[in-house]
Amino acid sequence: MPERAVRPAAPDVSPPDVAPPAFDPRTDDWRRQHARAATSLDDVEALFPGRFDLAALDRPGIEAAIALYGMRATPYYLDLAERAAEDDPVWALAVPSPRETVRLPEERDDPIGDEVDGLHPHPALTRRYRDRVLLYPTPVCSVHCRHCFRKRVVGNADYAVDDAALAAAVDWIAGEPELHEVILTGGDPLTLGDDKLLALLERLDALPHVWSLRLHTRMPVVNPFRVTEALAARLGALRTPTLVVTHANHAVEVTGVFARAVRRLRGAGVDVLNQSVLLAGINDEPDGHRALLWALLRAGARPYALHHADLVPGTGHLRTHVERGYALMRALRGTVPGHALPRYLLDVPGGHGKVPLDYPWVQPGVLGGLRVEAPDGTVHLYGGPAARFERG
Ligand code: SF4
Fold first, then answer.
1. Is 267 helix (H, G, I), strand (E, B) or coil?
2. pLDDT tens digits for 124-133?
3. Hey, which CATH number is domain 125-356, 3.20.20.70, 3.40.30.20, 3.20.20.140, 2.130.10.120?
4. Pocket lining: 150 vs ligand 1, CB cutoff 6 Å
5. Does the C-beta of 144 come closer than 6 Å to ligand 1?
6. CA distance readout (Å), 209 to 94, 182, 288, 294, 332
7. Phi/psi of residue 269, each to 5°?
8. Residue 290 annotated among the catalytic residues of the structure
């Protein structure tokens, strides 16, 4: 009997019984960070298997908030969270709270009046002041911050701006010689690729009446790999002085990678400032806020503005009273360098612009003089006909 040929075994094509390698949250490719952003608790678990205690969360409540407002958080940013809990600043700003489903009567979809009649000459523009204009080149952000004042815009395709609309917006700016500063803002302009972003900036740069370009971006905080040497060099090569305003709210966000992004920008001649939002339980007590200001100074991003939280739907749990902001500013003055103190600002609802909410250090005193409270807590009468200057 002839021997039967021995056929080689068929290759085993069944999937290996091991999980695919996890995404490295420190991957330094900003596009991959953006693409792999978590949009659900399942994504968080897939990115960080077993790291966060998700069982303890009110999952239906969080999912209801996601259904209302969406969620997006880069692996890099989520990796900065220590705990899956609302008292963790990164978690609280990246992952919806069930409390977001509560909308208070005073809250508004457009809290600072970006779209009120008379201020909105084009879908991608808001002109609130004679000399400045906001330009919204994209509704895309790498993280959907829970406190965002443009929640209605972020991630919303209705606000997408195509090339023709962007060109029309620039044409409009070209016809307004009293406009001297153009502010690219959110969405996040740094989610655009280099070529698209620079094509836009170069058109603005060529306008003789544009004397300042500003980019408001949270990318150095939530996806700092976006600030490549190449991008920094191209921004620094613009004729018009260019300013990047970052948005860090807590010292834990000011990492070594953030500092490297700031160094790259400054090294290319681009100045870097920071704006924060006053947020309950996140940066509204002096020690934590002082740590943020010092971290920013050490990283080379000058603190510039502290915004009172706007009347954004579903953010009542993140807002403080103005009194809390006063107390914070009172405690900070004299305990950090003056150049590290941000301006505490209120954006007047309805599109009326910003006003400083300065702590009332100086008030009318007797006989036309002034009652002055000093940082060391002493109270003085200053000036007036009596010209008195007394220790309180
Ligand atoms: S990055 Fe800015 S515009 Fe985008 S969600 Fe955060 S706060 Fe809003």
1. helix
2. 999 999 999 9
3. 3.20.20.70
4. yes
5. yes
6. 39, 10, 42, 36, 39
7. 95, 15
8. no
